[in-house]
Design brief:
Elements lengths: L2 H11 L5 E4 L6 H8 L5 E10 L5 E7 L6 H8 L4 E3 L2 H8 L20 E5 L7 E4 L6 E6 H11 L3 E4 L4
Parallel strand pairs: 2-6, 3-5, 5-8
Antiparallel strand pairs: 1-7, 2-3, 2-4, 6-7
């Protein structure tokens, strides 16, 4: 099954309503802004990290216009030294390719290995958007449905203040 179809199937099974927007492949936040302009939602930046030992992996989610500095992030996460995870690790743990990182990749994390750190500012968000594990589309869902999806995954997650 194609990744997009897998995501839509899970959302349908969870009775999560979504808006589906197709567009050309957009691997970066900057390229995305051209297509996100008419979508009413908070668009996110999704970053995949590993700890220095390589035995823990983290998905960090924040609003797309926010800058994040790794040294500052290390202090906020209290996980020791972290670095971006390799494409190989991204594929192994989330079943994704670079440029398509999304919390919907947790569908592929059968062992619930990846822990999420989500910016506190996204906790009460009305609508939020992510790629459906493929950067040729964007899905918009309600904030409440995002919480519902997170609980369904079985992965651990926490909302924390990622920036001042």
């Amino acid at each position: 099954m194609i990744e997009k179809e897998k995501v839509l199937q899970v959302l349908d099974e969870l009775n999560i309503n979504y808006e589906y927007h197709e567009h050309p492949p957009i691997p970066t936040i900057e390229a995305s802004k051209e297509y996100w302009g008419k979508m009413e939602s908070t668009h996110c930046k999704n970053l995949f990290f590993r700890n220095h030992k390589g035995n823990k992996h983290y998905l960090v989610i924040l609003e797309c216009n926010q800058d994040l500095y790794i040294k500052d992030l290390e202090q906020r996460l209290k996980q020791g030294k972290i670095s971006f995870a390799s494409d190989k690790r991204l594929s192994k743990y989330l079943g994704l390719k670079a440029g398509s990182v999304s919390p919907f990749g947790l569908i592929n994390d059968k062992e619930n290995h990846v822990h999420l750190f989500i910016d506190q500012n996204l906790y009460d968000i009305e609508k939020i958007s992510f790629h459906p594990n493929d950067n040729t589309a964007t899905l918009v869902i309600s904030g409440d449905d995002f919480h519902k999806y997170l609980k369904w995954t079985g992965n651990t997650y926490e909302f924390i203040q990622l920036y001042d």
